[in-house]
Design brief:
By secondary structure, the protein is an alpha+beta fold. It is globular, with a radius of gyration of 19 Å. A five-stranded antiparallel beta sheet has the order 2-1-15-14-13, with helices on both faces. The chain has a four-stranded antiparallel beta sheet with strand order 9-10-11-12, with no helix packed on it. α3 packs across α10.
Amino acid sequence: MSSKTRRAVLVAAGTSAVLAVGAAPAAFADNDARRPDTVQQRLDHLVRDDGFPGALASVRRADGRVRDYTAGVGDLRTGRPVPRNGHVRIGSNTKTFTAVVVLQLAGEGRIDLDATVERYLPGVVRGNGNDGSRITVRQLLQQTSGLPDYDEVLFTRPEDLAGLAHAYYEPRRLVDAALTGPPRFAPGSRWEYSNTNYVLAGLVVEEVTRRPFGEEITRRIIEPLRLRDTSWPAAGEQRLPDPHPHGYVAAAPGAAWVDVTEMDPSLGWAAGQLISTPADLRTFFTALLDGRLLRPAQQAAMLRTVAAPGFEPTGEWQYGLGIARHPLPCGGDAWGHGGDIQGFETRNLATTDGRSVVVTVTALPTTEQMVTDVAGTVDAALC
């Protein structure tokens, strides 16, 4: 669901939690038309050399051409191929959807981004120095609230990624778990990723609309954009729609992959619960950058960024409100988010000239190089 989930595996496997910055992925030439497609080469590399069970991608060029890719197998037990544009769990890409819903409500005058969390959720953020009266909605969306991350409380061993896969969590339980720890810093003084911020943002939406959060995402984003393969799982729903690849976790590099395709995504909720496909996710980010989801003032607010050290292990990143900006190695900037949840890691970027890429691997990485190579595949596909 987040980089924190991924890093829990890396730490337990004896790898530094502070991932190497600037490590370059293997280079692949693409200057000869007779050679295989660069994206396909890189997906094959993710499977053959990094050891991911499978990978899938959707790429849109600036001229509007779209191509979907696959590599590896979709089921290690049967050897069945990866379905093209299969359903996957998109983890923290959900945060961008959540931010859009909050910003739409801000555009309607129903949420004030600079009002405090306490105004909308009285008494919810209190204890151990955490104080909702000092944190604004904007700080939740920008990851500058200082609130601790519930991931660090719920996932303390690599075995938890599989062992807790079927556990159901109410949103308030996630918040309460986070608040057992003290703030990481004073609100607004730093940037640090915390899933707790987006669970609280979802609770603010429910308080304002008096409707279930998943319903608001569905009627405000999924249905208008006709994202037919994107869905908000109902409470207790653990299966992925067909077609889908299987998703896996491992307790350490080289350890056996454990199938966690069926799992309860409630631990992500408004921070990471959505199911989608690479093509649908690409369509969403393209529509967002095209200004089709937000009014101009809210669009500008979303794209106003702060430095986000550690958001990804490679490259420079700036974080807006639920979306991040990344300078491409070939020049220019791209926008996206990315997400990790048991069984799947997705990385994605889109540009304002119409290019967009989504890459998903069907297991959480267990080494720094695996993480770097997935990100490098997205950069290469855009460049």
